[in-house]
Amino acid sequence: MSYDVEKPDEQWRAELTPAEYAVLRQAATEPAFRGEYTDTKTKGVYSCRACGAELFTSTTKFESHCGWPSFYDPKDTDAVELVEDRTHGMVRTEARCARCGSHLGHVFEGEGYATPTDQRYCINSISLRLTEDES
Ligand SMILES: [Zn+2]
Question: Where does the chain have alpha helices with state H?
Fold first, then answer.
């Protein structure tokens, strides 16, 4: 798998904080209800904190009460890459930034949320950076 943005590991380490690196590059998960965007309702665009690609918008963010920012659809379908994840004894769908391959979170389906897609992109706040819409 190759990505448009590829950097040696030591460069990612230098550019990201240790907490950002652990999630984006090592697929760690931030603690529930601690991320800065969990309850954010600000209108704007959420970009990849590693490479700046635009990934989600506030219009598809919804209150899932799961402890992480949740979206029912990416900004563009091919902005987010979905990868089967068999770690931790589960089969899950990992969401990665399609431009740089950084870990964003996981996608869950069929949970019964009242959203148009019945999907929940459960994304770590620390993988994202919100740019507020200019009003
Ligand atoms: Zn990225």
Answer: 9-15, 18-24
Fold topology of 9-132: 2.170.150
Distance 4 CA to ligand 1 centre (A): 9
122 in active site: yes
CA 75 to centroid of ligand 1, rounded, Å: 13
Global pTM reads 0.95
Catalytic residue among 51, 97, 100, 122: 122
Q: Where are the beta strands (DSSP E) in the chain?
A: 44-48, 54-57, 61-62, 70-71, 80-85, 92-97, 103-109, 119-123, 128-132
Q: Which amino acid appears at position 16 of this protein? A: L
Segment 4-39, tens digit of pLDDT: 999 999 999 999 999 999 999 999 999 999 999 999
Contacts by 72-75, CB closer than 8 A, 24 or more apart? 72/113, 72/115, 72/116, 72/117, 72/118, 72/119, 72/120, 72/121, 73/116, 73/117, 73/119, 73/121, 74/121, 75/45, 75/46
Cα of 61 from ligand 1 centre, angstroms: 19
